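Posted in: Structural Biology > Protein-Ligand Complexes

Title: Requesting predicted complex, heme C in pocket

I'd be grateful if someone could produce the 3D structure tokens for the following input. Sequence and ligand are given below.
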Amino acid sequence: MKSFLTIFLAFSICACSGGGDGAPSQQSFAALGRKIFFDTNLSNPGGVACATCHSAEAAFSDPRHLAVSPGAVSGTQGTRNAPTIMYSLFSPAFGFSDEEEDYIGGQFHDGAALDLEQQAMRPFFRHVEMNLTNHETLRQKVASASYASEFSAVFGEATLSDAEQTLIAVASAIAAFENSQELQPFSSKYDAWAAGQVQLTDQERRGMELFNAPNKGNCAACHPSTGDDGSATRALFTDFTYDNVGLPANKAVNSSSDLGLYANTGRPSDVGRFKVPTLRNVAVTAPYFHHGLMKTLKEAVHFYNARDIDSSIGTPEFAENMNILELGNLGLTDQEEEDIVAFLNTLTDGYTE
Ligand code: HEC
Ligand code: HEC
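-- Reply #1 --
Done. Output follows.
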């Protein structure tokens, strides 16, 4: 697990080599990170934790199912939808891939954070999220938290006397939590099917075939239904690339100035491109897309099927460079749209027969 190595690198620059009984385990990092993730006192005013917008009951997306989430300061809100953070650790560090001949990976809808550690440093200080004044404020809050002694035991006594070291340690602990089994259980009906333990219903199987078929749904072109070894095992349903699927703006949340990947790279061809999200647990993470425009999976699938022929869908916001090759007029029947939705419903973790 790549991120865990980074954690040790971050750890080794802390003044904590005098730890005595050897390095703390990944479990103690993750357990501490979990406490920080759920701490509602790390915002200003208090009341908003990472878990407020990324709750286990909604696969670590916003359990209120809002298009955009309110921040700690009354009346503030962001302009993007809070995604699931399950399976996020599999996103490679943001960068240009020679193989894809394009940008891939990173965290956030536009890859603006290199990786999970970099990501975890941001929400605390964003005005529309947790609104802490500066790194020193975070240090003071962690130093007076119920888990402060555990924090010192894991990262060394000196860490909590330095704001920058505290921030690095906090980010490392959160990333360790995000690396834990709880966020990547691979326990959906699809996983049970891949392991040969359960059958799909006829409708789910038809939906899967439509999802995979290049001349039908073609969804797997960007949301691969196979894992590293080419089988269905441990499929992530994203290739972590970027695309402009030609969505209309969400006027209700003032998303219209969101240029996506362009804001990160400055390449004109990246206007309106957003990271391909995982579809794992998608049935419990409504609403959909970077601006939360669509409320149901049926709407989302219909969008792919009929963007170019159903005027009720609305005008694409950035039509100049949208994808016209792989989606927009798929020729699926209403029943076939329903079948794909039934298949997407098999991707929810925690399946029991
Ligand atoms: C007020 C709601 C809110 C809070 C609080 C919040 N987030 Fe988020 N989170 C979001 C939104 C919205 C995005 C997407 C933002 C973007 O793409 O620019 C996001 C994106 C992410 C991502 C990237 C996922 C991906 O697939 O790209 C991770 C990881 C994440 N948050 C973790 C955290 C952590 C850790 C904390 C606490 C330190 C936190 N969030 C606090 C709303 C929130
Ligand atoms: C050309 C690549 C591509 C293809 C093909 C594709 N998608 Fe996507 N998908 C994306 C991108 C990129 C996003 C994020 C777009 C955004 O938010 O602006 C996305 C987002 C989604 C979402 C929203 C998920 C969320 O958490 O908000 C759903 C649902 C979805 N796709 C389902 C499908 C289905 C079903 C198909 C086949 C009918 C399909 N996709 C085909 C690239 C693709």
